[in-house]
Design a protein that fits this description.
The chain is of the alpha/beta class. Helix content is about 30%, strand content about 25%. It is built from eight helices and 13 strands. Strand 6 and strand 7 form a beta hairpin.
Length: about 230
């Protein structure tokens, strides 16, 4: 894996995300970066989500476009998603992580995304988009934990973490979550950028790392511990 992964805690494309998203684009090594916004998870307003993202990255100097990949047949059709494979940064919006997972898991589109990262591209997701990239995710509606895309092994993402109490969250995870995972509690407008064993915090908030019964808080610019 030559490229980088960005896991964002939510509130994507809003004021306060600018420097974080510039840093995510810079991770591609391209200027301007070719950005493709994919609103698969945004089941209640995909057109607005895609337009907001393309407008946001365009204003930051990116060469931004959108891919309206909304259903499984789109993810199976290389002619439909082919242009996205030429991007420097593919960014999944928030919304429904279940729908995102059902739409792209095991698809030719997902395989193409992994090739993009192997070739040095950046794969990013916010909220639902970040949740789906871990090896397990908690289902917001149905409850319980399910296997997810596994882009980042042995990790689960807890977005919008600024709303949570760390001590209570740690207790809940010890009781109800799968064992053997590192849980990343990521605040909105905040992200984790990098590769396994080389993650750093970007954005305006904090990231809480939960491992077993322990948890640590990291701020923007901090390097996260190794081991995941």
């Amino acid at each position: 894996m030559l490229g980088q992964i960005a896991l964002v805690g939510g509130d994507e494309f809003r004021r306060g995300c600018e420097e974080m998203d510039r840093e995510i684009m810079r991770a591609s090594g391209k200027d301007p970066a070719k950005v493709v916004v994919v609103p698969t998870a945004a089941v209640t307003g995909p057109a607005k989500a895609a337009n907001d993202g393309a407008t946001h990255f365009g204003a930051l100097g990116g060469d931004a476009n959108q891919l309206m990949l909304l259903e499984r047949s789109h993810a199976e059709d290389a002619n439909f998603f082919g242009a996205a494979t030429l991007a420097d940064l593919v960014y999944f919006t928030g919304g429904s992580p279940e729908h995102l997972l059902e739409t792209i898991q095991g698809s030719p589109f997902f395989s193409a995304l992994m090739e993009l990262v192997d070739d040095g591209g950046v794969l990013a997701g916010s909220s639902a988009g970040a949740m789906a990239m871990g090896s397990m995710m908690r289902r917001p509606r149905a409850g319980g934990w399910v296997e997810s895309l596994g882009v980042v092994a042995d990790v689960a993402v807890l977005p919008h973490h600024e709303k949570r109490d760390q001590a209570e969250t740690s207790k809940e995870l010890q009781v109800s979550a799968p064992t053997g995972l590192t849980f990343l509690g990521i605040d909105a407008r905040t992200g984790v950028l990098g590769l396994p064993d080389n993650w750093r915090v970007v954005g305006s908030g904090r990231v809480t790392v939960y491992q077993g019964s322990e948890w640590q808080i990291f701020n923007s610019g901090d390097q996260l511990p190794t081991g995941f």
